[in-house]
Amino acid sequence: MGLFFAQLLTGLANAGALFMVASGLSLIFGVTRIVNFAHGSFYMLGAYVGYTLMQVLPGVVGFWGAVLLAGIIVGLIGVIVEICVLRPVYSAPELFQLVATFGVILVIQDLTLMIWGAEDLLGPRAPGLKGIVRIMDEPVPQYDLALIAITPFVAFALWYLITKTRVGILVRAATQDREMVGALGVNQSWLFTGVFFLGCALAGLGGAVQLPKGGADLLMDFNILTSVFVVVVIGGMGSLPGAYLAAVIISVLNVFGVSYMPKSTLVLMFLVMVVVLMFRPFGLFGREEVAGEHGQVGEPERPIKPAGLKIRLLVAAALVLLGLIPVMGSNFAVVLVTDILIFCLFAASLQFMLGMGGLVSFGHAAFFGGGAYVAALFVTYAHTPMELALILAPLGAGLAAVLIGWVCLRSTGVYFAMLTLAFAQLLWSLVFQWGDITGGDDGLVNIWPSAWASSNMVFFYLTLVICAGGILLLRHAAHSPFGYALRAARDSSRQAEAMGINTKRIQWVAFAFAGAMAGVAGGLFVFSKGSVFPNELEIARSFDALIVVFLGGVKTLSGGWVGGASFEATKDYLTRFEYWRLALGLLIIAVVILAPEGIVGSLRKLGERTGILNNAEDKR
Amino acid sequence: MQRKTFLKSLIGAALLASTAPAAFAQEGEPIKIGEINHYKRMAAFAEPYKKGIELALEEINAEGGVLGRPLEFIFRDDQGDPGEAIKIAEELMTRDGAVMLTGSILSNVGLAISSVAGEKKWVYLAAEPLADAVTWSAGNAYTFRLRTSTYMQAAMLAEAAAKTDAVKYATIAPNYAYGKDAVAAFKEVLTKLKPDVEFVAEQWPALFKIDSGAEVQALERAKPDAIYNVTFGTDLAKFVRDGNTRGLFDGRTVYGLLSGEPEYLEPLGGEAPEGWVVTGYPWYDFTEADGANKVFVDAYQAKWNETPKIGSLVGYMAAESIAAAITKAGSTETEAIRAAFEGLPVETPVGQITYREIDNQATMGAFVGKTALKDGAGVMVDWTYLDGADYLPSDEEVKKLRPAD
């Protein structure tokens, strides 16, 4: 009984920092609709700033002063980010801002490394709270008790701010209907900036307050990000009590998981999330998202049309040029372009789902990595030849997409995105954990193409044919009746239903189709690399694809592969330099600000303005 | 000048001009080695490693280089991504003119490079990766490994553990391949040496996401006599802090794999655990009696003005091994280098090591000792250097573990 109680206390103490970070993310999302990927970075900054301050400020007052100051400083950094990076892109298509926050992550990572160095910093202990208290004969650290006491206080202060003050009223109003708030004469920009300050300050506070339980290191930004997203989604986006309850549930369950199912550490959180969202598609305290904004933000979207003659000729010429690479270019150029082509197909498959279907997936790597693993497993255990494995890869990935899609499509919007993330993570941990079959993180090695395709050049042509074909097929599908129905379901599911379109089924098919195409890319990937590791199923891989789709232009047909090609080529070039993450991050932010419609969208506009391309309107 | 002789000399000059640069290039052009690592993702480990390499290069080239040519490393960042590492390997070998590859800290990246090296017939020296698979289950003729493997280090600790009275053991290891290998090897060797041991708890925190309070409570609940720890980095720091606070380590011996390495011990500062039996690198204790060890540590501190880590030593030894292999090969052809690595003896700071012919594993050993606090910092005391050759399974077992070349 004593142990049980002590474990409960450990869970409650762990919930503290998690709640602070999560509530910040929740607030920011609620008001600005920005999915802030950089939230983990602000948490990391909080830890580093807090650490530095604690070295300077002495004693008990110094310690708690440092925690508070760290929150404020990080909040101010958040304000800078908001004003410089996010404000210019509020009118961009929905979720586009997450690309900008991804750039911010890279910049903060390199700056932190520059300022504080590479070595992990062990957090100082809280003065006066270094010992333990015996409760029912079990040792409980004093600082844990302090955290348990502080967290409800922070939660209460937030609750008061949100429910009882004028600022809170505005914040709540903006969460429900931000256009109306703007129409009523509230200065939205400053409201957004203020909320961003508060959210980032909370993240910084979370980072500083956990110092005595851990420290500051360069991996903590990504390490907390997934748990925070999970907490926010379980609690319901935008709901503070929800975030608190979810943080407690996750932390307490985790403590018992550690004791009674020690191997569950990787999956438990995601299982809880899947279960909760199955029964409450909008989280515990979340409300159904109001049926979209009043119309779309930004410019109205143009109807897609088949490519004109000029574009077709251009693409044909580009394909011929690509085909000449083995003849003209070096061996490495062949390998590099093979890599890029595979990534382009992966990105294009996500683009189809995201752009045409409006289905934002945070877990598309499940199908890329899934396809890769299907091929690798067949080769390793059944000695399947490459040709057959390349066909089985999309079948396997497509089948996985059918199953995952069936569950995920019960939710919509950000909840849908988080469910896909959860499933990708479940698949990842299955592969990671099931070492006897999948090799765990030692992966599956020695999976090489058949003899006829083993030279880099032949494999390049194989990849070129399959990837270009795949991308054209996706494009073709967008122009087919199926593509029209999919877009109808995206733009107005009610009207589409009224016209007799089974929107859920159409989306389900699109999800499976995109998954299968990602599987094709995954199959090719295995044979080009000769090995596969769980990295291909990681969240980072899903994010890569997501970023390039937005960078390329989500509302265009070709954004996926154009973004993929430019991003991969740039990255290949930049990683040769010392501070490449800083450079890449700044570049991403610059593209986001200068080309809010993505590369393709902005180029098209430029082309029309200069008269190289005909405007769609003129043709009618 | 007669016309004939003029023509002759002209032709001669032209010939000379056309051949000279080629010969010249052979003479003075550096021998390039491709080094792929996670310089950003694992900066705390990769930086000392790189500095070790640079120190060795400086020394090698001051003495005239290798085969009369300077030795040069091309350092490339792979972001800790196996796919990326393979692409870079291709570029280094086919475009940049590297004669062989080395690098990687993470085992999965090491295995990825090893796989492509075996397929494309490039020599790869896996300097840092610890996974047993690198030289055993996924081994190939072109991959060699320098560092003391997981199995060897675990076997050293198991041997120390077998000498005590402790019977009930609990283990805590990060939930991924390295952690699992480390626990399996420790269990295997300890059970062989002392059949009555019992493993009462196994904890598997997620890598770098440890919930240390809960892990400590779970370990305490099992009431073990001794604990075997494989966690490292931030996980270790949190585990040690919570374990100290809650008194988990009182009256128990803890065996810590790698816990004595400066990379992990230094960040703990004054909170470093006392009395743990660990593998590590006690560079601060070296005296003249330790010979080459001391020389290396002094040279490193003189050049970089900072203290060495275990990564510094590994980087230094990797460059030394490569220089020795190319010298022995007498050429920069892949097959010659590969053949030279087989059975290659290398003089290093820790003594002579040999790249075994049977599995391409080097016999580098490890320092095993007890942790203690000295001037508010964790150190290793009562340490000895154990030769890696004594902690490998028998040749028959190794042959079974390794696929036929």
From TrEMBL, chain A:
It is a multi-pass membrane protein. One of its GO terms (biological process) is amino acid transport. It is found in: Cell membrane. Keywords: Amino-acid transport, Cell membrane, Membrane, Transmembrane, Transmembrane helix, Transport. GO terms for molecular function: branched-chain amino acid transmembrane transporter activity. GO terms for cellular component: plasma membrane. Belongs to the binding-protein-dependent transport system permease family. LivHM subfamily. This is ABC transporter permease. It comes from Puniceibacterium antarcticum.
UniProtKB/TrEMBL annotation, chain B:
Keywords: Amino-acid transport, Signal, Transport. Residues 42-371 form the Leucine-binding protein domain. GO terms for biological process: amino acid transport. Residues 1-25 form the signal peptide. SUPFAM superfamilies: Periplasmic binding protein-like I. Belongs to the leucine-binding protein family. This is ABC transporter substrate-binding protein. It comes from Puniceibacterium antarcticum.
